[in-house]
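Q: what does this look like with NAP bound?
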Amino acid sequence: MKIGFIGLGIMGSAMAANLVRGGFEVTVWNRSPEAFKPLAGMGATIALSPCAVAENSDITISMMANPIAVEAVRDGKEGIIAGLSPGKGFIDMSTVDDGTSLETARMADEAGAMFLEAPVAGSRKPAEDATLTIMAAGSRTLYDRSLPILETLGKKILFLGETGNASRMKLANNIVMCGTLTALCEGMRLASSAGLDMAQLLEVLDSGAVSNPMFRLKGPLIASNREFPAAFPLKHMQKDLRLALRLAEDVGQPLFTTATINELFKKALAGGLGDLDFAAVSRVI
Ligand code: NAP
């Protein structure tokens, strides 16, 4: 099967590399050409536009920063939709709002192609290790056809029904993750201000009911407060908070904690922390 991959950022470059390693014939495109080199070295074909990727592929995958980036590679005469034709598939794995996915599904349908939204949970390392959790929704036919691809990228794959459900599920997942991380930052800051050892707090947490891999990974980073190399860029987490709050408005659900956490993340963004890992929010607490 010929696969197209568009968006070679932190996640996309690792995922595209796994598809090449998995034996798929992969064609790639990225806005900034620096990202091509490692994949070309592995045997991927470089295309001149998102449209050319879709023309050359049975299934085209995108992994973009946000809804605006999805539109940038989807629309227009150089865009993915222009390269689709009946029988082809388009899978958007970016974290976006349900409205963006529904519009993409409509456009793909008009081109006679199938669409699946398939955002992921898991960061840089799970993308490299092919242990992502993949939430898919949209065309069941495309989902069934894509399973060998999705299984090359992730360890847990769920089909959630109609288009929009996967975006919504991903946002619900992320407000839990972000709230948990923010609570960890506050707990560690409180411990430190009260004269306690943050490493010991991490030990206490790790032996109790809230023990989790994210605390083990990010806790020492927060304690050292030196560098926050981006596994999950803070600017993308703020985008997810913003989209979750919008979804909450649409469905009439108050999100008391998320609204407050969003203010904290806006402050972090304004303070120039957007390209660091989202654990850098600890700096504004
Ligand atoms: P990233 O490293 O910032 O990569 C973003 C990609 O989008 C890059 O290929 C970038 O191209 C492209 N892009 C941005 N704006 C564009 C535009 N206007 N036109 C064309 N291309 C554009 O982000 P990432 O961490 O890989 O995340 C990708 C998606 O996965 C996001 O939706 C994020 O929320 C989601 N996600 C991330 C993680 C994580 O831990 N990192 C985990 C789960 C889900 P350039 O290279 O040219 O900038």
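The two ends are 49 Å apart (CA to CA). The first strand starts at residue 2 and ends at 6.
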